[in-house]
Write a sequence for this structure.
């Protein structure tokens, strides 16, 4: 039996909850829907049969209840892979570590972690308003390099093709690629356009936007659009998926990202009503949860 984790490594609040999320194990459902925007939590939980727990600390707001009789939590992560590092580690700790004794449990629980997000398309044939599912997360953030991670053969081959086709700036973190959980893909994203989702480290320069400052490489977005590896292409930009997929796999959780396309970067279009687009995706995902059980 490993020694209990020290208080500096596993921080537990006085009420027995995990540090940032402020959650206790009984407040976390086996299926957790992750959203960036705190305001989107209530837009999802309004579809619940009832809400049993409402917990908030900082940008992390959780509603847990049932939807169609299925236990579900919805949790806001905030923006970026740094927040995903906190959220996934602490969700896992809350369900797989005894927060009282600080001992890792012998039998691990596996969660369904489904992200509902927004994104900008990088392909001209993906219209604004389209729901897309991320078969792979292509990380530009570097976070996964802080962990010991083994890639599959298809991931290595796709990364190799990316390195051959895209002139990646040496000053930036080396990209990495992780696949989603196929069992979630076949149920939740079964009829959505799928492909590679690029996870950027910011919204402006890291996604090639130019306001006052000029991005280091103004050709990068076009290179992403042009990339092909077999049937795979880079569909869209967002800011969380690569870390979700990488950390989720390391901890034995099943992960999937579905995004509403609210902008098309190539056609320079933006949705006239992004909330409607997101709400439509929410209803589709919630309806398909029953097929997981």
């Amino acid at each position: 039996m490993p020694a209990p984790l020290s208080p500096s490594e596993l921080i537990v609040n006085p009420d027995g909850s995990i540090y940032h999320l402020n959650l206790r194990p009984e407040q976390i459902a086996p299926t957790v829907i992750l959203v960036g925007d705190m305001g989107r939590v209530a837009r999802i939980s309004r579809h619940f049969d009832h809400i049993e727990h409402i917990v908030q600390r900082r940008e992390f707001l959780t509603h847990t209840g049932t939807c169609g009789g299925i236990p579900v939590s919805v949790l806001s992560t905030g923006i970026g892979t740094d927040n995903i590092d906190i959220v996934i580690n602490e969700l896992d700790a809350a369900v797989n570590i005894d927060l009282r004794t600080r001992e890792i449990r012998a039998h691990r629980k596996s969660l369904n972690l489904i992200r509902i997000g927004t994104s900008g398309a990088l392909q001209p044939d993906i219209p604004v308003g389209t729901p897309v599912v991320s078969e792979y997360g292509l990380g530009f953030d570097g976070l996964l390099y802080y962990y010991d991670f083994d890639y599959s053969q298809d991931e290595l081959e796709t990364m190799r093709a990316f390195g051959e086709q895209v002139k990646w700036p040496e000053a930036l973190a080396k990209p990495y690629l992780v696949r989603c959980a196929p069992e979630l893909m076949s149920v939740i994203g079964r009829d959505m356009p799928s492909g590679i989702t690029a996870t950027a480290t910011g919204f402006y320069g890291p996604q090639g936007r130019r306001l006052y400052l000029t991005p280091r490489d103004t050709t990068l977005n076009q290179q992403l659009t042009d990339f092909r590896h077999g049937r795979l292409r880079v569909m869209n930009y967002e800011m969380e998926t690569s870390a979700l997929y990488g950390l989720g796999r390391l901890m034995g959780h099943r992960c999937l990202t579905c995004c509403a396309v609210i902008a098309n970067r190539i056609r320079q279009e933006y949705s006239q009503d992004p909330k409607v687009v997101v709400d439509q995706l929410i209803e589709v995902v919630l309806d398909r949860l029953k097929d997981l059980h």
User: Anything to note?
Assistant: The chain has a mean pLDDT of 96.
